[in-house]
Write a structure and sequence with these properties.
about 325 residues; seven-stranded mixed beta sheet; four-stranded parallel beta sheet; alpha/beta; binds 6-O-phosphono-beta-D-fructofuranose; 11 helices
C-alpha cells in the first residue's frame, strides 16, 4: 500500500486541521495510508510519527491550530538536519511528504526536496506572505477575527473619546494591517512597506470626525511610538494601544479556510501519489495549481498595488 507522510510546520493557522482531514481521507480514498509526523520538521528529525487513520481525523475540521502540533525548526537550514529528515522519511516507508506551512517552511520543503525527497507543500500562514498563491490557509479566519476585535475596540474609542492604535501581526508584511484597515474602515494604516506621513494624518484628524482607530502592522515598528505621536495631535486625550497578539492566530476556521484546506489537501495528495514532487499547491483564481518550489521559496508575497490604491481612495493611506 502506498504511504505518504504529513506534517504541519511553523506558526499554526486555522485551516491546518481541515487540510489534515482532507489529506487523510483523500489518501484513503486512493488506497494509500498516511503517517502523521508530530511537531513539524523537528518531529521528522526525531522520527516522531504514527499512522493517521481516517477515523482519527473525523471531527477535527472545526478546530483551530493543528492536531499534529507544530514547531519552528531553524536547523532545517543545515544540510545535516535535512539529510536526517530525508533518511527518516525513507525509514517511515513514505514515498512522499506533504508539508503544511508558511513562508519559512517553504524553504525547508525545498531543501528536503533537493535532498531527494518527494515533497508537496500546502501554503498556510495568517501573514499571507507565501509567494505564488493568492491566499494561504488561515488568512481569512484571521482577518475575520481581527475585524471582530477592531469593531469591539471602536466602541471604547468612541465612547471614551480616545484614539486607539491596534497592532496586528503579519511579520514583515503589512497585508493583515492594510486589509483590516480597509475592512474595518479605520482612519489609517501604518505599514512596513511605506513611510508614514504624520503631517497628513494630522490634517485628516483636524478635519474632525470620530476619534480614530489606527491599524499598525507589527513589522512597521512599535504601536506604542505611534501613541506618543497621537498625544501631540489630541492634546488632553488619552490615546491607547491594543496589541492583538495570538488571539489572531487561533479559533474556529472560517468556511473559506475549511474549503481551502479541503481543496489544497486533496490536490496535494493527487500530486504526491502521482509522483509529482518539488511543488507547492497554489490557490490561483479558485484553482489548485502545482508550482515549482524554486519559484516560490525565499520570495515574499507583496501586497498588490490595487489594494494600496483602494486604501488611498478610502483615505486610509496617504501619499
Ligand atoms: O507567521 C505567523 C506569525 O503569527 C507572525 O504574524 C508573527 O510575527 C509570528 O508568527 C510570531 O511567531 P511565534 O509564533 O514564533 O511567536
Amino acid at each position: 500500500m502506498a504511504r505518504i507522510a504529513l506534517l504541519t510546520s511553523g506558526g499554526d493557522a486555522p485551516g491546518m486541521n481541515p487540510a489534515i482531514r482532507a489529506v487523510v481521507t483523500a489518501a484513503a480514498g486512493a488506497g494509500a495510508e498516511v503517517v502523521g509526523v508530530r511537531r513539524g520538521f523537528r518531529g521528522l528529525h526525531e522520527k516522531d510519527a504514527a499512522a493517521l487513520a481516517p477515523a482519527a481525523v473525523e471531527g477535527i475540521t472545526n478546530f483551530g491550530g493543528t492536531v499534529l502540533r507544530s514547531s519552528r525548526f531553524a536547523e532545517m537550514k543545515e544540510p545535516e538536519a535535512v539529510s536526517r529528515c530525508a533518511e527518516n522519511l525513507k525509514a517511515l516507508g513514505a514515498e512522499a511528504l506533504i508539508v503544511v506551512g508558511g513562508e519559512g517552511t517553504v524553504q525547508g520543503s525545498l531543501a528536503l526536496s533537493k535532498a531527494g525527497a518527494r515533497v508537496v507543500h500546502v501554503p498556510s500562514t495568517i501573514d499571507n506572505d507565501v509567494s505564488g498563491t493568492d491566499i494561504s490557509l488561515g488568512v481569512d479566519t484571521c482577518l475575520n477575527t481581527i475585524l471582530r476585535l477592531v469593531d469591539s475596540i471602536r466602541d471604547t474609542a468612541s465612547s471614551m473619546e480616545r484614539p486607539i492604535v491596534i497592532e496586528v501581526m503579519g511579520r514583515l508584511t503589512g497585508y493583515l494591517a492594510i486589509m483590516a484597515a480597509v475592512g474595518s474602515g479605520a482612519r489609517a494604516a501604518i505599514l512596513p512597506e511605506r513611510p508614514f506621513p504624520w503631517d497628513r494624518l494630522r490634517e485628516s484628524v483636524s478635519r474632525g470626525g470620530q476619534f480614530p482607530i489606527i491599524v499598525c502592522a507589527e513589522g512597521a515598528g512599535s504601536a506604542r511610538q505611534v501613541v506618543d505621536q497621537l498625544k501631540d495631535m489630541f492634546p488632553g486625550s488619552v490615546p491607547r494601544v491594543s496589541v492583538l497578539g495570538y488571539i489572531q492566530r487561533g479559533g474556529t476556521p472560517s468556511f473559506f479556510d475549511r474549503l481551502l484546506g479541503a481543496r489544497l489537501g486533496e490536490a496535494a495528495v493527487e500530486a504526491a501519489l502521482g509522483g509529482v514532487g518539488g511543488r507547492m499547491i497554489a490557490w490561483r483564481s479558485g484553482n489548485c495549481i502545482p508550482v515549482p518550489l524554486e519559484e516560490v521559496a525565499g520570495r515574499r508575497r507583496q501586497v498588490s498595488p490595487e489594494v494600496f490604491e483602494t486604501a488611498k481612495k478610502m483615505g486610509i493611506l496617504f501619499e
